[in-house]
Amino acid sequence: MTLLVAVFGIVFGILSGSFSIAFDGAYSLADASMTILALIVARLITANASHNRRLHKRFSLGFWHLEPIVLGLNGMVLISVSVYALINAISSLLSGGHQLEFDYAIIYAAVTLAACLTMAFIGSRANRTIQSDFVALDVTAWLMSGGITAALLIAFIGGSLVEDTQLSWIAPYVDPAVLALVCVIIIPMPIGTVRQAFSDILLITPEALKAHVDEVSRATVKKHGFVSYRAYVAKVGRLMQVELYFIVPPGLPAKTIEEWDSLRDEIGDALGDEGPDRWLTIAFTADREWAE
């Protein structure tokens, strides 16, 4: 659907002479290329989660690190396309605008708006169960495209109504003006996604997750008489990565492997969120250097 909307926009942009429609098509084309990349990454993550031997052998840590990379790249591409379109819109306004075929433009905007709203609804409903950042970004992209198209539809109808009237001088400015307005509105929208993606890529520790891990670790140290602990926490896409090192007193009476495993289970249960999206390592040592 994204590819169809992109091709539809580029063709009607040429037929109507509209920069804003051509931009809408180019925007959808950029989004389509990122969606294809997202599908590839999602398939890799799924294959690895199903314990594909070949993939697990070469990528034993999984593919979760690719998710924020794709999200960040997607957001940067959409922002870049929008900034470029804004520059062109301002240039067109300063040069006196241009004429366009409003009939073609109105047909395009109406059909594309219906497609965007339909796809946003389908994605939003599906993501109630899936809970995927990929799908959420895709829904946002459809809503952004729908907002662009709605603005275009209103502007094209208004431009068509003022033709052959005393306000006909406005008509050449309709297309670049609405394009500039739409770009100003949508440029900030992916910024939050890009910021979160780069936080994941740079392994910036989420404050809430770190506070929870620290709370559980302090309780464990107090309960079992350990000396201290070291916690290393990161979030990569949907993957929660936690490494815990508990520093035990020298000469602590020996425990069986089963007892240490039972203690690990106790700590893991206290941390919660057990599942394929949690990577948890728990170690016990009397040597602080192993924990640093």
The percentage of residues in β strands lies in: 5-15%
Mean pLDDT rating:
83
Low-confidence runs of at least 5 consecutive residues: none
Helix content: 55-70%
Number of strands: 3
The main sheet comes to: 3 strands, mixed
Radius of gyration: 27 Å
Distance between the termini: 51 Å
> Which descriptor suits the 3D outline?
elongated
Summarize the structure.
This protein is mainly alpha-helical. The chain has helices at 2-16, 19-49, 53-58, 66-94, 102-130, 133-162, 171-186, 191-201, 207-224, 257-271; strands at 228-236, 239-247, 278-285. β1 (228-236) and β2 (239-247) form a beta hairpin.
Description:
The chain has ten helices and three strands, in the order αααααααααββαβ. The longest helix is centred in the first third of the chain and has 31 residues. The chain is mainly α and 292 residues long. A three-stranded mixed beta sheet has the order 1-2-3. The relative contact order is 0.11. Helix content is 68%, strand content 9%. Helix 2 runs antiparallel to helix 4, helix 4 runs antiparallel to helix 8 and helix 6 packs antiparallel against helix 7. The chain starts with a helix and ends in a 7-residue tail after the last strand.
